[in-house]
Amino acid sequence: MSSMDDKIVGVRLGELRNRFENELNTQYEVAEIRQHFALLCASHLEYGPAQVVLNLQEKVSEQIADLLLNDLAALQKHVPIQYIIGNVDFADVLLKIDKSVLIPRPETEELVHWILSTTPDDKPLRVLDIGTGSGCIALALKKARPLWRISAWDIDRDALSLAQHNAESNQLHIDFQQVDVLTKDLPESNWDVIVSNPPYVPAALTKNTKPHVINHEPKHAIFVPDESPLIFYEHIIDYAYKHLAFNGTLFFEGHAPLMKSVEGLLQEAGFSDIVLQNDFRTNPRFTRAIRQ
To answer: Residue 28: which domain range?
Structure first.
């Protein structure tokens, strides 16, 4: 913090938590503020949630107080807690994240679990993750299925660099490639599984998007043109139909209001056994289709 008033010496942890609650109460509910505070204490003090509560009367150093107050200032500017901490746990994989990549969502963890629960685990399947971002899907699948040979594409070089870092830190091998799936010149490879969580939010919804998303997460990983909201699905479905093995599987995550339209695209392309699945909020979020 810039003001000398914020240089707190010998402050109790509980006082800092109270300050968080007082200064963030217009942005978050108390329970969420306390959850954020606990996550920051885990990062700076290696405290678990119970330790935070047990140590509320304990004094922290000036250095720790300053770190927490800087975090408070960032939260007031709507910086997502995941970017402040710099990492996120995703399906048993610890991922470094920054503003070059979308923050992995719980819904995407659901997609990973669905893939794992419906796909054979005893074969060295060839798997492609399109639009990998932080590498979350590819790395979670590789961690759970070491036999799978997994490739991951993204158009963004910075995202690929971060994904490669995540692969190395988790000691997992993924073949990362810089590929623009909207071009016609795509790798002529064959796959058993293709999965994608592409950009899918129509640009018209920008005005309804929360500040921590619109001001801090990469827009190109979220929004699509209003006139062609299915553009990524169209290109990926076309590629998948040509390059999936017989009985190969295509998985998508998507925008709930558009998932019936995605189902229609899959039917028109000739895919079969198409399944729409709801997320934990009961929104239609995922689809699976078979290439026959």
So the answer is: 4-77
